[in-house]
Every structure is written in structure tokens, then in C-alpha cells.
Amino acid sequence: MEGAMADPVLRGSQAIARALGVSKRTVLRMAKDKRIPAFKAGEHTSPLQIKREDLDLLPRKRKRKGD
Are 39 and 30 in contact (CB under 8 A)? Predict the structure, then answer.
């Protein structure tokens, strides 16, 4: 079995936040406002998910000088 990179979907708001360089709260707010193409596969308790191909198209937070 290959690693998690073979999975076409990134699961969990924390994992999405790390990939974008933002906070988990920011990811949840962006998903609620439909600013990122994230989805839930089930009910309210299912994890937030985003396709890796969609994630690659989103801008990342730039590192500030001194970070």
C-alpha cells in the first residue's frame, strides 16, 4: 500500500489548514463561505474534505519576512 499521497482527497480541516498555511478556524470559515471547494461526504460529524487537484489550485499563505 502506498502512502497517503496516493489518496486523491485530503481529509480533515487541520490537514487542509496545514496544506494552505492557515488556521483550522480559517479553513472552516472559508468552507462555510464557499471560498474553497471543500465538502463533507456525510452528516455534520463527517470530516471536511477537499480534492488534492483543487487544493493545488488554491493560493497558499505567503511566509512573512522573519518567519
Answer: no
Nearest to 58 by CA among 24, 11, 25, 16: 16
Within a domain: 65: no
pLDDT by 10-residue block (mean), the chain, 67 residues: 69 94 95 94 92 88 59
Task: Give the number of C-alpha atoms closer than 13 A to the C-alpha of residue 17, restricted to the C-beta side.
Answer: 14
Which of 48, 6, 5 shows the shortest CA–CA distance to 25? 48
Cell digits of residue 56: 493545488
Q: Count up the domains in the chain and report the number.
A: 1
Residue 1 counted as domain residue: no
What's the whole-model pTM score? 0.77
Helix ranges, 1-67 (H) = 13-20, 24-32, 52-57
